[in-house]
Fold this sequence. Notes:
The chain is of the alpha/beta class. It has helices at 5-16, 30-40, 63-71, 87-94, 141-158, 163-187, 204-210, 228-240, 255-264, 284-297; strands at 23-27, 44-48, 74-77, 106-108, 195-198, 213-217, 245-249, 268-271. It folds into two domains: 20-182, Rossmann fold, CATH 3.40.50.1980; 184-297, Nitrogenase molybdenum iron protein domain (Rossmann fold), CATH 3.40.50.1980. Helices cover 42% and strands 12% of the residues. Helix 6 (163-187) packs parallel to helix 10. It starts with a helix and ends with a helix. The relative contact order is 0.11. Bound molecules: zinc ion.
Amino acid sequence: xxxxxxTLGLILFLLASPASAVVKVFACEPEWKALVExxxxxxxxxxxxxxxxxxxxxxxxxxxxxxxxxxxDLIVCTGAELEVGWLPLLLRQSGNSAxxxxxxxxxxxxxxxxxxxxxxxxxxSQGDLHASGNPHVHWGPYRLLTIAxxxxxxxxxxxxKHVAQYRQRYQAFATKxxxxxxxxxxxxxxxxxxxxxxxxxxxxxxLNWLGIEMVGNLEPKPGLPPTxxxxxxxxELTRSTEISYIMTTNFQNxxxxxxxxxxxxxxxxxxxxxxxxxxKASDLISLYDGVxxxxxxxx
Length: 299
Ligand SMILES: [Zn+2]
């Protein structure tokens, strides 16, 4: 009988543990779900409002998402107006005071870092989706590290019982990530000075980091689909400038990109935008690995 006691004790302990033992996280995008899971491990339970095959600029505030925000202890979103079309509505409908702006349960990644491409003269009538600067911050590896530190600090505040574990997890991530940064930087050194066209400015942080020049966008302004006049201008540009590739991702309409590629023989690189965007991109490190390898292999 004595041998059974510890097992029974464990069962009773598990039954007695309240469900709130884990921090329930509502992530807006897969990259933040991946990051919070890396930093929180077994102490968090996260879901993502969007998949890697959806453009996070355009999501509907569906009832199933509202239900998830109702139960969340923490929301982790990009901010910088990326989710302006749907997150405010979700927050209002959630009836959850813990995840409202300025509360501990409200965390925006883009607020933790300096943003690039902040428009000098903002004209919303032009449909500029990046009114608060470029929100696609998970493609800046140093920024991602800053965000990870702030997110870990937030988890420590929300779940003080596991401060030591969160710290240890952050340290492990930071060490690994920094090692990866040097690896990626040497791998991509040969890409410096290359010129590319992108569909949308969702690669800007990556390109800035690697010293690749973005010389054109298929969108005349972030969020506006390519017009034939705009495509004609891009075609003209390719006559005077050597372009290595056109970068798109799976949720972007590739019609304009294909047209330009057929006219010019510039290859299209369709890359995973975030975690889950292809088979290999199972976490942030494999996502970066895959994209940087694709860029370097396509010389
Ligand atoms: Zn965007």
